[in-house]
C-alpha cells in the first residue's frame, strides 16, 4: 500500500480519510494537514492518523491528494509545488481545476490525476470520476481507483468531460435533496404530517434508485410502467411538463458546468 497525504482535510478531504480507514488502509500510511490545531486534533482522535504540516506530509507520502478549496489552490501549490518530486502521484479533488493548473507548479514529468467525487461517499455510495492528466498512466489511474473505490463506484472519463461530471454527479446530490424537499412540502399541502411525507418520499427515492441501478431498464420504460392511461401519474407528469421542469434541469446543469469553467478561469 502507498502512504497517502490528504492536503486540506476539510469536508471532501475527510471523506477520503474516512473511506481509507474504513477500508482497512493502515493508519500509519495515512497523513493529513489542517489549518487549525483544533481541527488537526479532531482528525487525530477520530481516525488515529498523523496530522502534519504541508511540507512534512508531502515528504512522508507516495500519493499527494490536494483537497483544498479551488480559490486556495494557487497559494498552496506555490508553496508545495517545488517540494513534490516528479516520482510522486498528485491527485486533485479541487472542483473545476484542470490538471494543467497543477502541472505548472510541479516538476516536469509529475503525474497528475483529476478526481470528482460526491458527498454520498459518507455512506459508501459515491460516484467518483477519474481522469488522467499529463504524465499519468493507467497505473496511476489504478492507484486512484484503489483509493476511491471504498467510497462507492468509480468511472474513468476524459478530462474534457470533468466539468460536465461536476455539474451532473458532483453537484447532483443537492438536486435530489431539493426534489425531496419540494415533494415533502407537497405532501404537507396534501394533508400528510411532515415526517410521514418525508419517510414516503425518501423510501420511494431509494427504491427507485435501486431499480434504476439493478434492472438495467431505461428510465422511460420504468416511468411508463407506473403511468397508466388517464391515471394519477400522467396527470402529475403533464403538470411537470407544463411547468418546464425538464427544461429547467437542462438549464441548471448547463449553469453548473459553466460555473465550473469560470472557477478554472479565475484560478489560472
Automatic annotation (TrEMBL):
Gene3D superfamilies, A to Z: NAD(P)-binding Rossmann-like Domain, ProC C-terminal domain-like
Protein name per Swiss-Prot or TrEMBL: Pyrroline-5-carboxylate reductase
NCBIfam families: proC
Classification of source organism: Bacteria, Bacillati, Actinomycetota, Actinomycetes, Micromonosporales
Catalytic activity: L-proline + NAD(+) = (S)-1-pyrroline-5-carboxylate + NADH + 2 H(+); L-proline + NADP(+) = (S)-1-pyrroline-5-carboxylate + NADPH + 2 H(+)
Organism: Catellatospora coxensis
HAMAP family, per the entry: P5C_reductase
Top-rank EC class of the record's enzyme: oxidoreductase
UniProt pathway annotation: Amino-acid biosynthesis; L-proline biosynthesis; L-proline from L-glutamate 5-semialdehyde: step 1/1
Binding of NADP(+), residues: 67-70
Domain Pyrroline-5-carboxylate reductase dimerisation: 159-262
Entry GO terms, CC: cytoplasm
Major localization class: cytoplasm
GO molecular function, one term: pyrroline-5-carboxylate reductase activity
Amino acid at each position: 500500500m502507498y502512504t497517502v497525504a490528504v492536503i486540506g482535510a476539510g469536508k471532501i478531504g475527510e471523506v477520503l480519510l474516512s473511506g481509507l480507514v474504513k477500508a482497512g488502509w493502515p493508519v500509519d500510511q495515512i497523513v493529513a494537514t489542517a489549518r487549525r490545531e483544533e481541527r488537526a486534533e479532531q482528525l487525530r482522535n477520530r481516525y488515529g492518523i498523523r496530522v502534519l504540516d504541508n511540507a512534512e506530509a508531502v515528504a512522508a507520502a507516495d500519493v499527494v491528494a490536494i483537497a483544498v478549496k479551488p480559490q486556495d489552490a494557487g497559494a498552496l501549490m506555490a508553496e508545495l509545488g517545488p517540494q513534490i518530486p516528479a516520482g510522486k502521484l498528485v491527485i486533485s479533488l479541487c472542483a473545476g481545476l484542470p490538471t494543467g493548473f497543477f502541472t505548472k507548479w510541479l516538476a516536469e514529468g509529475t503525474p497528475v490525476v483529476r478526481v470528482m467525487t460526491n458527498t454520498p461517499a459518507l455512506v459508501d455510495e459515491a460516484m467518483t470520476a477519474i481522469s488522467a492528466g499529463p504524465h499519468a498512466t493507467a497505473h496511476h489511474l489504478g492507484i486512484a481507483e484503489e483509493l476511491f473505490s471504498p467510497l462507492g463506484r468509480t468511472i474513468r472519463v476524459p478530462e474534457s468531460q470533468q466539468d460536465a461530471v461536476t455539474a451532473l454527479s458532483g453537484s447532483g446530490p443537492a438536486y435530489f435533496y431539493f426534489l425531496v424537499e419540494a415533494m415533502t412540502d407537497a405532501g404537507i399541502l396534501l394533508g400528510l404530517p411532515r415526517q410521514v411525507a418525508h419517510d414516503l418520499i425518501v423510501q420511494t427515492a431509494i427504491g427507485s434508485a435501486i431499480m434504476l441501478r439493478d434492472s438495467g431498464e431505461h428510465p422511460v420504460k420504468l416511468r411508463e410502467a407506473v403511468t397508466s392511461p388517464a391515471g394519477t401519474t400522467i396527470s402529475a407528469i403533464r403538470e411537470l411538463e407544463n411547468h418546464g421542469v425538464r427544461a429547467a434541469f437542462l438549464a441548471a446543469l448547463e449553469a453548473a458546468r459553466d460555473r465550473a469553467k469560470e472557477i478554472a478561469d479565475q484560478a489560472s
